[in-house]
Amino acid sequence: MWIEKYRPKTFSEIKGQEKIVSRVKAFVESSNLPHLMFAGPAGVGKTTLSLIIAKELFGDDWQHNFLELNASDERGIDVIRHKVKDFARTKSIKSVPFKVIYLDECDSLTTEAQQALRRTMENYSATCRFVLSCNYSSKIIDPIQSRCTVFRFQPLSQEDITSLVKDIVSKENMTITEEAIQILYSLSGGDARKVENILQSCSVINKEITEDLIYEIVSAARPKEIIKVLELSFEGQFIQARKLLLDTMLKYGLAGIDVIKQIQSEALHLNLEEEKKAKVIEKCGEIEFRMIEGSDEFIQLEALIASFISLK
Amino acid sequence: MIWTKKYAPKNSKELVGDIRAIMQLEDFVINYKNQKKKALLIYGPTGSGKTEAVYALAREKDLEIVELNASDFRDKESILEIVGKAINQGSLFGNSKIILVDEVDGLSGMKDRGGATALASIIPKSSFPIVMTANDPWQKKLSGLRKKSNTLEFAALNYLEIFKVLKRISENENILVSDDILKGIANRSGGDIRSAINDFQLIAFGRKEVLKEHLDEIGERSKEEEIYDLLRIIFKSKDQNLILQTFDKTNLNFDEVKIWIEENIPKEYKGIEIRDAFDNLSKSDVFKGRIIRRQHWRFLVYQKYFMSVGVAIAKKESKKGFVKYEQSTRILKMWMAKMKYGKKISICEKIADNCHLSSKKSIKEVFPYAYLFLKQEKDYLDLNEEEFDWLS
User: Fold this and answer.
1) Which of B182, B260, B168 is closest to B215 using CA atoms?
2) Chain B within 8 Å of A217 (Cβ-Cβ)?
3) How far is A94 from chain B (nearest CA, A)?
4) A residues 53-72 near B, CB within 8 Å?
5) What pLDDT is stored for residue B120 in this prediction?
């Protein structure tokens, strides 16, 4: 997996986030770490930086002194608490007086679970430092934020992505056009993990990467059938539209939210009057909200495509 | 002999279902002296094995059971009389005992007046474990009992566990039946093992071999007729009172009715009628979601209103003529796809283990861009043959 093969292993290898890296490095060099919170979008280095912190602090012993947990996979806060308890029971081996616990995707915890997490942090703060990561710090309760030094990660810049791509391409004996790099950057939105996965997919098909190849790979992640579903619903062919929608979702394993995202982002390119595009987007927003509140994604999507019936 | 009795588990080893819950129940009874709260309220869907777990535990540990179920009077006096006595007396044969109050959410307002309060008041004094069962423990009338009790959830049984039980029965009874049919019975029971065993006994009665067509005999027919009637009223009428009354009378499961309505809206309606009907069905579903998340059951009123009247008033004029309503295949298709996508999930879990990610993220963010090259990572991800084949 290139996302592991090319994961930076030292502070200096990290692309972007210069200010954050230099401050964290200073903490690590003084062997004095506050609780940290890393906020930012996917694929910008939150987990990578945490792993490097552990490796720099504990050297070869890092795996004994570093606990990685994922809030969205662990079944509830109780499981997290138990694991933290077991981990914190033994002392850290090295000269460092604490162990490090990395808790990823904290924003998937409910407010109640975050309250419990706060107490856990307090109970073990003598022996453990917590590094919490999340997409949006606004989803984390204030008492936790106030106990942490918060760092906000930015998407990687075009320069960072370009240098990452050139690195990998040359190490893998591939070639890539400048246009392809440009496209890769704009499609990824500065997400290094996405870039690396797309590159590795390209490598299976052709060692010479062009714009077209990248489009081919990315569009497979956004099935064309969804556009067809839209066309059918505009024409009032509701039964056919929903059948194709269901089959497409099942074929590609799409969740309801994936479908809405795609419709919303493609609405602008539809052959429609401007006011009607706005109606489509408005409906997407309304249905996305109802989907979060509701219980049956497909009913919500049917309501969405049914709302397009009278649009054209 | 009724199979549900004949094949009832004889000890806790034979129990199927929520192992974690069963162990916690055992822990509560055995370490009863150390419990702060003197009663245990176990809840879960019908047929998830709540009562059976208590009985199996009693058989295994040789405990007497004092049971009070919904068929007994359970007003204040009877509770104090039966339970009140039992909590202090030594057992008849000197054994210890469990006091089981079955279906405690069925305590009815009038007939069992004061029952729940009386029960709550004697719990702290009990010297024997009191175990209560309920389908819906969040009812307001149980709030006093909840405070005095530990609660324990029994999850609905997985269809495969039910299948295993049916399989064992079929072997024991020498009935020739394919695994697919047994799985079908298990699956349609919706996690209710009692109804699955009953269904199986019904179609196996007097037969040596059970075939696919025999499956149709299981109570589906009359249910379908009831659904047709309901759909006719929703799609043909605009009389709100009539619609709501019919809806209130039915014993059909709302989720099932919803799927039928969903499937047949475009068969009756045209154009913007479809739009408005689905808009209301979508609103109904929002209330369903809120009920699940907040356990605020009053929202049921709105869930029902929007899926029935809401859909009915979306039509411009009353529909005439006969329409043959059809059953939706959506749930079945989704279920089959889920089985198929089991491999995708297990692959994504392996990506998660190896790449510092959650499995959710590897499904959403990695797999769509990575499925082309995952075969090459067979060794790195330790994919098994089945997963490898699935990727081709």
Assistant:
1) B182
2) yes
3) 24
4) 68, 70-72
5) 84
Q: DSSP secondary structure string, B35-56?
A: -SSSEEEEE-STTSSHHHHHHH
Q: State the average pLDDT for chain B.
A: 84
Return the amino acid letter for A119: R
Q: Which two tokens stand for residue B300?
A: 């049921």
Q: Is the pLDDT of residue B110 over 70?
A: no
- Show residues of chain A in contact with B275, CB under 8 Å: 306-307, 309-310
Q: How far apart are CA B72 and CA B103, in angstroms?
A: 11
Cα atoms in the Cβ-side hemisphere of radius 13 Å centred on B339: 9
Residue A2 φ/ψ, nearest 5 degrees: -65, -30
Question: In this complex, is the C-beta atom of B368 within 8 Å of any C-beta atom belonging to chain A?
Answer: yes
Q: What is the value of pTM for the model shown?
A: 0.55
Query: Is B76's pLDDT higher than 90?
Result: no
| Cα B104–Cα B107–Cα B110 angle in degrees, nearest 5 | 170
CA–CA dist A278, B359 (Å, integer): 35
A302 touches chain B (CB under 8 A): yes
> 3-class DSSP state for residue A209?
strand
What was the pLDDT predicted at B221? 46
Per-residue pLDDT tens digits for B203-255: 887 788 888 777 776 655 456 777 888 898 899 888 888 888 888 877 788 88
Q: How many helices (H) and strands (E) does chain B have?
A: 20, 5
Burial class (CB in 10 A: 0-12, 13-18, 19+), A108: middle
In 3D, which of A246, A24, A258 has the Cα closest to residue A148? A24
Mean pLDDT of B159-180: 89
Q: Can you read off the two tokens belonging to residue B77?
A: 């006096």
Residues 6+ apart with CB under 8 A from A246: A298, B330, B333, B334
Taking the CA of residue A91 and the nearest CA in chain B, the distance in Å comes to 24
Cβ–Cβ contacts within 10 Å for residue B306, how many? 20
- What's the pLDDT band for A21 if we cut at 50, 70, 90? very high
User: Helices A225-234 and A238-252: crossing angle, nearest 10°?
Assistant: 170
Which residue in B has a C-alpha nearest to residue A50's C-alpha?
B356
Q: Tell me, what's the pLDDT at B219?
A: 58
Task: With a threshold of 0.85, tell me whether the complex ipTM lies above it.
Answer: no
Q: How far apart are CA A112 and CA B110, in angstroms?
A: 37
H-helix segments, chain A = 2-5, 18-29, 46-58, 76-89, 111-124, 142-147, 158-171, 178-188, 192-205, 211-220, 225-234, 238-252, 256-266, 274-293, 297-307
Note whether A49 and A20 are within 8 A (CB): yes
Tell me the two tokens of residue B160: 């495969």
Nearest Cα neighbor of B289 from B306, B276, B313 is: B306
